[in-house]
Design brief:
Length: 469
């Protein structure tokens, strides 16, 4: 008796049931009742159901071994580690804080690094801390300094003396790059890996898992120092709100950390003259799948224009980047790279974000290249249209639906540098709104070209909703 040829790629319930029923006559001629009520068919269908589930889990497990198809966050984290790419934890928003005096002082006033300030909003309070010391000189009344969003927290641990000691932090929203470790008054340095660490290198690694639990790993004594047994390990970090830390200008108003001059507290007012931007939640799996291969292609060095863009877009707090020049303009030097950068959440990048990004690119560029960073130009697109709604539709409701559809169309996450706005896409978007019969566009009436360095945003919206005749 010959064997039935089973297509092993057909692993769904219907295919399994069909293949098994076709195999039955080759096994016995006594089974002739294939109705759904037959006990043998019932058992066969049960086995097919179990086989379908097992095949799904096997396929899903195999898919987790590849970056393009992995769906579980921890597996994506582990795969990215193989190419030295680490998914970003939440990124703290950055801004400038302005400290002002009521009257000039007769001595320099130092506002120390880590001075905390707060913005009181309806939903929640948003706290910031300064990133370095700032000084109001004698006779002056104000100074501006960069600040990051977050609340500073400190935890203390004890060294075990064991190679590769690991400690777990209690915070679940540790800001990217904010961890500071001090052991016996020495500042330790965070590294991506221990490959270049020496025996006496005070290095550590941080690792955040899929549940946002952050752990600290020290060296093994061969690559990286091992903290001695019983030594106190002080770990400080920022716990951030991520994207919720992006707030408008002039919202920070409370000074939480008192500032002293000659042991006397000084009255200061504080505000943020520029918006807080660049804050974002933990890196998404979609972004990691795109960004990790791009950074591998660049080998973490900026040589080509694509390298500069890939490295900039992978920097925490940066959402979009575009090279503005093609190195064929007679007004600039050949070895000059002009880069437009938009932060997460939109708006202009803060001076602190631009400073940090410039330092990051400087460490990876060719020595003869000069890098210039530019803010994005947000180009408003005016919409003037007459919209006709079906009979029986609420005109106000249709109006609000159209507004929402256009806001979604021009959402910051959807638009990119230099991408034109097509007239047909606008008409299609409005026509697709529930309750809209047709639309008559007055402005624009053709495609809108968006130049390099520009991002289209929704401008003045003037829509008139009427009944369709």
């Amino acid at each position: 008796m010959g064997r039935a040829s089973i297509a092993y790629t057909n692993k769904d319930y219907d295919s399994l049931r069909r293949e098994l029923l076709a195999r039955v006559p080759q096994l016995t001629d006594r089974w002739t009742d294939f109705n759904a009520s037959d006990l043998g068919v019932v058992l066969l269908e049960l086995f097919c159901g179990v086989g379908d589930m097992l095949a799904y889990y096997l396929d899903a497990q195999a898919a987790e071994a590849f970056l393009p198809t992995a769906r579980q966050r921890q597996n994506v984290i582990n795969l990215c580690k193989l190419i030295s790419y680490r998914l970003d934890s939440p990124v703290a928003a950055t801004t400038d804080l302005r400290f002002s005096l009521a009257a000039p002082l007769d001595a320099d006033l130092v506002i120390p690094e880590g001075t905390a300030c707060r913005a009181r909003l309806e939903d929640e309070d948003v706290e910031f801390e300064t990133t370095k010391d700032a000084t109001i000189p004698t006779g002056r009344m104000a100074v501006e300094v960069g600040a990051r969003q977050g609340i500073r927290k400190t935890e203390t641990f004890s060294g075990t003396g064991e190679p590769g000691q690991t400690i777990n932090l209690t915070g679940t929203a540790v800001a990217q790059g904010s961890i500071r470790i001090r052991i016996q008054d020495q500042e330790w340095i965070e590294v991506l890996h221990f490959q270049e660490s020496e025996v006496e290198s005070p290095h550590f690694q941080s690792d955040t898992d899929a549940l946002d639990k952050t752990s600290i790993v020290f060296g093994d004594g061969v690559r990286g120092v091992v903290p001695t047994a019983g030594v106190e390990i002080e770990v400080a970090y920022l716990e951030t709100l991520g994207a919720s830390g992006n707030i408008g200008s002039n919202l920070v108003s409370e000074l939480l950390t008192p500032v002293y001059l000659d042991s006397q507290q000084v009255a200061l007012t504080v505000d943020n003259p520029v918006p807080a931007t660049g804050g974002t939640d933990r890196e998404s799996l979609e972004h990691a799948r795109k960004q990790a291969p791009a950074e591998v292609r660049s080998l973490w060095k900026a040589v080509t224009k694509e390298d500069y863009q890939s490295l900039a877009e992978g920097y925490p707090g940066v959402a979009k980047a575009q090279i503005l020049d093609v190195n064929d303009c007679g007004n600039i030097r050949y070895y000059q790279v002009n880069l437009a950068v938009a932060p997460d959440g939109g708006g202009p990048p803060s001076p602190l974000l631009k400073e940090d990004l410039a330092q990051y690119l400087e460490s990876r560029k060719v020595i003869t290249v000069e890098i210039n960073l530019f803010e994005p130009v947000y180009r408003p697109v005016v919409i003037d249209a007459e919209i006709f709604a079906y009979a029986g539709e609420d005109l106000d409701l249709v109006h609000s639906r159209v507004e929402q559809a256009l806001e979604d169309f021009f959402a910051f996450d959807r638009m990119n540098f230099g991408v034109p706005v097509h007239f047909s896409d606008l008409v299609s978007t409005i026509d697709g709104v529930r309750g809209v019969s047709h639309v008559k566009m007055f402005t624009p009436q053709q495609d809108i070209e968006i130049r390099a360095g520009e991002i289209a945003v929704l401008g003045i919206l003037n829509i008139d909703v009427r009944r369709a005749v």
